[in-house]
Design goal:
Elements: H1 2-18, H2 63-78, H3 82-86, E1 89-96, E2 102-104, H4 106-118, E3 122-131, E4 134-142, H5 144-149, E5 155-163, E6 169-176, H6 180-198, H7 200-206, H8 211-238, H9 243-246, E7 250-253, E8 263-266, E9 273-275, E10 287-289, H10 291-301, E11 314-318, E12 322-324, E13 342-344, E14 347-351, E15 371-373, E16 381-385, H11 399-405, H12 410-415, E17 417-420, E18 430-433, E19 440-442, E20 454-456, H13 458-469, E21 479-483, E22 487-489, E23 507-509, E24 512-516, E25 536-538, E26 546-550
Helix pairs in contact: 4-8, 6-7, 7-8
Length: 556
């Protein structure tokens, strides 16, 4: 029956193809009418067993759990617990350090972290954010070398932690986190250059990322920082005086806060001694002392009742200014209750045999003029400010008056009598402005090639009048004159010269003070060379000798 049905079906199909109209086929019997002997319909194929579910990745650790291992990692590393660190990472962990070092696997990581721990590295998390399978953290990082650089409160870094499927840290990438690292990189170049010159063998060993290499690396950073600190103190001390003095001076540091001896930072080749800032004061106050002033200063530091006998003038520079606890008590270590520190602008300090007369000099540190500090004590000395009057402070005064005023500090120039030169040589000086203090300022001397206004105190005015008259001046007290715009003189040996000798040049001086004392000056103590760069005697051995005290580097 099944083969016959198939033949009929083929025949019917042929008829259809040939275009004939076939007889209708009887409808198939309904399932209920199929005789029991009929072949039953092919049963539907059995339903396939559901496939075994594919293995799925472990669900990601919740965000809070991603950050917790990071905190544990940082805490373990900060305490040097390397086993604790390694327990948090996968066996194939990769670690990329900021400096370019890379560890692959736990054993390499242990070696690298041994080096890292010797640098006394500490990290403090400031912020962490989870991102899928990773955590990005910003941290504050400090270790021996960054601390030596000066970043004692930490340096910004970013760490990226990536997790493996087992929930452990698979990768750590460290990067810098701000432009500050550029400055650290420059410092590092300097450290390596310093180490190459001073400790080349240690520098080579420090590149090994081992515990020993780390210890040497840390030592080099500390040593370099110490050398920079010494260099910084030397530079600060040298800033107190003109470079001709400071560059060859002995540099001495103060004792440590807990006490001790003075420390020689550099042995000099001249007879000047310079000190860096006195850290007990609020300002920056380095100073440089000549031998007489140094003996005086050492006695003061030792708390002696009096300095050694002052047999000649002594000079000290404090061109950065300074601060003192008291203007009346030389032994004060801090201001008296209710008082402030006595702050002074750039100045020169002077000591002379017999001290200073309070009738001739102020004792007020706010006067703006030379004043006596510690008046009436064995340590009295004269503080001479050397900051010139600025043009903006001169108002609408005419050019000659402004020129004369530029020679001295504001308080002096603003109230001084101003003189100009007469049109005819030999005539009296011309009063351009009557003053209200006892200083006299004189405009530029037109016969010289340079600009050389001056301001004279009363003793210097006595000297100047005698000089102009060709008489011997009677010097009965110290005298101060200012030439803060510099000056020119025909000769350093002949006070009566009106022009340089044949073959000689004008003696050009930068900004300076001029000092007179009764009895004159000893050429064994002071130079007579106007090019020395330090205080020197002009017109030595004549009635008009005086000391020129440069307050800047001499002109070339």
């Amino acid at each position: 029956m099944r083969s016959l049905g198939l033949a009929v079906l083929v025949f019917v199909c042929v008829l259809v193809v040939a275009g004939c109209v076939p007889a209708a086929l009887p409808p198939p019997p309904s399932p209920t009418s199929v005789p029991s002997t009929a072949i039953p319909p092919t049963p539907a194929p059995p339903t396939a067993a559901p496939p075994a579910p594919a293995p799925t990745a472990a669900p990601p650790t919740p965000a809070a759990d991603l950050i917790a291992p990071v905190k544990a990692y940082v805490a373990a590393l900060n305490t040097g617990d390397l086993n604790g660190v390694l327990a948090l990472v996968t066996d194939d962990v990769s670690w990329f350090e900021l400096g370019g070092d890379h560890a692959s696997g736990k054993e390499q990581l242990r070696t690298l972290l041994d080096w890292w721990v010797t640098l006394e590295a500490k990290q403090q998390i400031t912020d962490c954010q989870s991102q899928a399978d990773r955590v990005v953290c910003h941290l504050s990082y400090v270790e021996v070398c960054t601390a030596a650089f000066g970043a004692t409160k930490g340096w910004p870094v970013k760490l990226i932690f990536t997790y493996g499927p087992d929930g452990k840290i698979r990768e750590v990438v460290e990067t810098n986190d701000g432009p500050q690292w550029n400055d650290l990189s420059k410092w590092w170049v300097g450290r390596n250059a310093w180490a190459s010159a001073n400790s080349p063998a240690e520098l080579a060993k420090s590149t090994e990322r081992t515990k020993e290499g780390g210890l040497i690396d840390a030592k080099l950073c500390k040593d370099y920082a110490a050398s920079l600190a010494v260099d910084g103190k030397i530079q600060d001390a040298m800033s107190a005086a003109p470079m001709a003095i400071a560059k060859d001076a002995t540099i001495i540091d103060w004792p440590a806060p807990g006490g001790g001896d003075l420390v020689v930072l550099r042995k000099g080749t001249n007879d000047w001694t310079c000190y860096p800032d006195w850290t007990a004061s609020p300002g920056n106050d380095p100073e440089c002392n000549d031998p007489a002033m140094e003996a005086w200063f050492r006695a003061l530091m030792a708390g002696e009742k009096a300095p050694p006998e002052i047999t000649g003038p002594g000079i000290a520079y404090m061109l950065m200014g300074g601060s003192d606890p008291s203007n009346t008590d030389p032994m004060a270590a801090a201001p008296a209750a209710g008082d402030d520190w006595v702050t002074s602008p750039a100045h020169v300090m002077l000591i002379v045999p017999g001290g200073f007369d309070a009738k001739l000099f102020s004792t007020d540190p706010q006067s703006g003029e030379p004043y006596i500090m510690w008046d009436g004590t064995p340590y009295e000395h004269l503080m001479v400010p050397v900051v010139p009057m600025a043009a903006k402070e001169m108002g609408n005064a005419d050019a000659a008056i402004q020129n004369a005023m530029s020679a001295a500090p504001t308080t002096i120039s603003a109230s001084a009598t101003i003189q100009g030169w007469p049109e005819k040589a030999g005539d009296p000086m011309v009063v351009l402005r009557k003053g209200t203090n006892d200083w006299t300022c004189i405009a530029d001397w037109p016969a010289s090639p340079g600009n050389d206004p001056s301001c004279n105190d009363p003793m210097w005015t006595v000297w100047n009048d005698a000089y102009a008259a060709g008489k011997v001046p009677e010097i009965t007290a110290p005298g101060i004159a200012y030439m803060l715009a510099g000056g020119s003189d025909p000769s350093n040996t002949d006070p009566m010269a009106t022009a340089p000798a044949p073959g000689e040049d004008w003696v050009n001086s930068g900004p300076h003070l001029m000092l007179l004392v009764p009895g004159g000056f000893d050429a064994k103590v002071f130079s007579t060379d106007p090019k020395s760069g330090g205080p020197y005697i002009m017109w030595d051995g004549t009635p008009y000798e005086h000391v020129m005290v440069p307050v800047t580097d001499m002109p070339k």
